[in-house]
Amino acid sequence: MSDAAKTALLSVADLGVRFDGERSVNALNGVSFELAQGEVLGLLGESGSGKSVTLRALLRLHDPRRTTQTGRISVEGADVMALEGRALERYRGGVASMIFQEPGLAFDPVYTIGAQIAETVRAHEPGDARAARARALEMLDLVQIPQARRRYDAYPFEMSGGMRQRAMIALALACKPRLLLADEPTSQLDRESAAAVIGLIQAANRDSGITALVVTHDPAVGAAFGRTVTIRDGRVGAEGRAGEEFVVVGRDGTVQLPPDTLDVLPPRSLARAVRTAHGVELRPVSPEQE
To answer: Among 30, 61, 155, 195, who pairs with 56 as Cys (CB 3.0-4.6 Å)?
Structure first.
């Protein structure tokens, strides 16, 4: 085994994902890459290239009844493909956590922002509701949400897109994961909000040493991080580094890459996927638990 493999926090080897239904679709084909402890990697590609499929595969979020997933995923030496039950729940949110593409749909609309962050904390760490609330407030402060105590009791629809994305980052970082997966974290934001979100990911990497994989269609966003690889037609391609001239050419020969199309899911369905991704048991939350 190479020295790089020994020090890699995330190692992906020959990852394949096939969606089965009326017809089978090979979404990923032999994807391989490594991510060292404390590194930030940008995964750059056009719509339909397989980058979001890759992130969901790393958390084992694809429905096993309709998906065949092959290859090897190792995080901190653990075989992610072999995880089941409570071990898989602990991995999701505790070891690896995800920032979803559309925070307006990712949060459950019937619970407050703070309650959803606190719920994730209680799913992974010992302590009572008061301690979980304190951690949630701490995280809202960390991502620079103004008036965090008031925002704790806000519902998702009461916050702007930029504030919701900051809250999504707070949710993803709440249980101090070692690996952060970010799915198009800036695609729904204006330029100022996008720059703030990139800064928050960079700060988390700088201050806590978190390892991050950031999916984007935008070469400018990819250039904000140290290393970037391209993905096209479910295969990893060229690699570049910040400061290098680095473009992605689409199927039509242009470099204008449209944002990924969000999976067509009802809001509550996506919110349930977010809970699953953070290792939260899918159950009703009573006022006492909030």
So the answer is: 61
Question: Which domains are present in the chain?
Answer: 3-277 (3.40.50.300)
The reported pTM is 0.78
> Where are the alpha helices (H) located in the chain, listed in sequence order?
3-7, 51-58, 85-90, 103-106, 113-124, 129-142, 148-152, 161-173, 191-208, 219-222, 267-277
Residue type, 224: A
